[in-house]
Amino acid sequence: MAMHERLRALAAEARELWVPSSETVERRSCIGLDPHSFFRDFVARSVPVVLEDGMDEWAARANWTSWTGLRSAVGDSTRVSVNYTPAGLGDHVEHGVFVKPERRVMEFAEFCRQLCEKDYSAGVPYLSEQNDSLRLELPALMADVIEPRFAPAAFGAEADAVNLWIGDEASTTVAHRDYYENLYFMVSGSKQFTLLAPTDLALLERKWVQQAQYEYDAATSEWRTCFEPESPRIPWITSDITDAAALRVLAPEAPAVRITLRAGEMLYLPCNWVHAVQHVASSAPTVAVNYWYSRPDYFISPVHVLTDFVQQLALSPDVAPGGQSVY
Ligand SMILES: O=C(O)CCC(=O)C(=O)O
After folding, report:
1. Which terminus of the chain is less hemmed in, N or C, by CB atoms within 10 Å?
2. How close is the Cα of 138 to the center of ligand 1, in Å?
3. Does ligand 1 lie within 6 Å of residue 184's CB atom?
């Protein structure tokens, strides 16, 4: 059996023994959730879970759910970093090149105006810097959020980053995976998460691609793609995992797990799970905060060793879908 076929068989088996479906993904209350149970039931097994009742004490749940409240919490003249793209696709592969959004720094009031008026004339704005943006750019807002008590003990680490996400349905985060354990909190509005297990990676189309960055030329109203010849090529998933019909053809043994995350809910997304994220349209702001944790080596369980191995195999040329080279 060719390596690709073996990985397909592994993905199917993993689904029987380990990976939940959209219907069986667990929802659990945070009330009384201790670090040991969270670690045992989800972190050690690398299984996503939606946690409820965990944000009841967050001032953000009262203060950030209207445009007026959000603007008064952040401050109209506070400067924030915003990512812009021509069509709302964040980091993604276009014409065989990995393109990153253009980062602009602006007053928060102007960012809110563009979102409220749907003014995308100079690109689609998404406040989505993943550089510890909440702690670094808006430290005063940290008083409105509370890290769950069970998290640092369960992950064996303090959070590496606390990120803020504000956008609307014009923006989409395409399929990718992160090396972080992710606690994703929906403060206002809803988002649709589409997830695939790490063992499904080999079933998806992947490419090693050159990196580039969008640049908008205000004088001509045109977008340019500026190549970064110094940056290394990176592996990136090019399948659209939100397209259920296409996924059924590509990876029949891997139906995606779909979760609608609503205001007040948090998602534990284990590292290496493939995910794509879409906004659910709303007149209220769509705001989320996520905590990223790097797992220390002594927290690695056999399931992590297995999934790391599958990731390495999936990125080697001889296991590309259909036997074609991904390079
Ligand atoms: O909310 C989003 O648009 C993307 C979130 C995400 O990819 C992440 O938290 O890793």
Report:
1. N
2. 19
3. yes
With a 6 Å cutoff on the Cβ, whether 133 touches ligand 1 is no
pLDDT tens-place string over residues 192-242: 999 999 999 989 998 999 999 999 999 999 999 999 999 999 999 999 999
Whole-number Å distance between alpha carbons of 291 and 157: 11
pTM of model > 0.85: yes
Q: Which residues, at least 6 apart from 163, have a Cβ–Cβ distance to it below 8 Å? A: 128, 129, 130, 131, 132, 133, 134, 289, 290, 292
Residue identified by tokens 């029949």 is 252
Query: Is residue 323 one of the residues assigned to a domain?
Result: no
CB of 165 shorter than 6 A to ligand 1: yes
Q: What CATH number does the domain containing 102 carry?
A: 2.60.120.10
Domain range for residue 260? 3-318
* 120 SS3 class: coil
- Residue 99's φ and ψ, nearest 5 degrees, are -110, 130
Q: Which atom of ligand 1 is nearest to the CA of 184?
A: 9
Minimal-distance CA residue to ligand 1 atom 5: 277
